[in-house]
Amino acid sequence: MDVKMKTSNWIVKDKYVVITGATSGIGQTAAKELAARGANLGIVARNLAKANEVAAQIMASTGGRTNVDVFIADMASQQSIRNVAAEILAKCSKIDVLINNAGAMFISRKLTEDGLEMTWAVNHLAPFLLTKLLMDRLKENEHSRVITTASHGHKMIKNGINFDDLSAERLYSFPKKIVGGPTLRYAETKLANILFTAELAERLKGSGVTAHCFDPGLVSTNFNQNNGLLARMTMAGMKPFSRSPEKGAETLVWLADTDEIADHNGHYYTDMQVTIPTIHAQNMDAAKRLWEVSEEQIRYSETRV
User: CA 155 to CA 281: how far, in whole Å?
Assistant: First the structure.
């Protein structure tokens, strides 16, 4: 990857990196590259067989020099996230980097076992909850990082997050096609990722932990392949204009491995450069409100257990 030439110190060497969504796409590509640079990994995945296969490939590619732990969780289930966080904390004496990379989009409106809309639960609340549960371990290091995969798709949201429709009932009443409600819901969760990063950075000041998010660009992966023929056709039509997973993962790897962002906190990046997101993604009042609402949503889930 070209990003190797842009880092002055390989700080990820001998660090422990927890990464979600590492069994395909940019997550898998980033995991392999970070392992090649000497990082030890904890990959959080839903499919045990696939996760074990990827872990074996990574360890083989490094000649056994890299350790890869496999943790299984359903990111749509807050109880599953709580369980996997407990497993990670029991297994890992340190966590240097947490990468919230798992994401999905659902063409039809679905609710999770917690009664939450599925895209919101997986793309926003899952990283929110996992980060909170692992935060004390991250703080035990002199320096550590939380990196979240956002998207330029957040620009589709013209009026900010609709806090009056967090269940997306009205949003999914839009025409049920790839350019309608489901796409806007996905974009809204990516806006949430940026606001979450900004508010997390504020709350982490002085702790030694920094928060970052990035736009991987339009990447040719298996994303959105489980949403029917129209979604697959749309993604196929976009493929000629898409980046490779290697290119899409560059900024993610750079954020985990560079010392150039040592004094950065709360920024959004594109192609290894700080980028200014939309005005709605800069709204710190909205970021604070999002945090408070998210706290309520995870507490509600906890009381249902």
Answer: 9
CA nearest neighbour of 104 among 121, 116, 91, 87: 121
Confidence of residue 304 (pLDDT cuts 50, 70, 90): low
Give exposure, 37-66, as e/b (b: 16+ Cβ within 10 Å).
Answer: bebbbbbbbbeeeebbebbeebbeebeeeb
Annotated catalytic residue 186: yes
Query: In the predicted model, what is the mean pLDDT of the chain?
Result: 89
Catalytic entry in 16, 172, 186, 268: 186
Please name each of the domains of the chain with its CATH number. Answer: 2-304 (3.40.50.720)
CA angle 125, 131, 133 (to 5 degrees): 100
Q: Residue 40: beta bridge partners?
A: 16
Tens-digit pLDDT profile for residues 191-244: 999 999 999 999 999 999 999 999 999 876 554 545 454 444 444 454 454 679
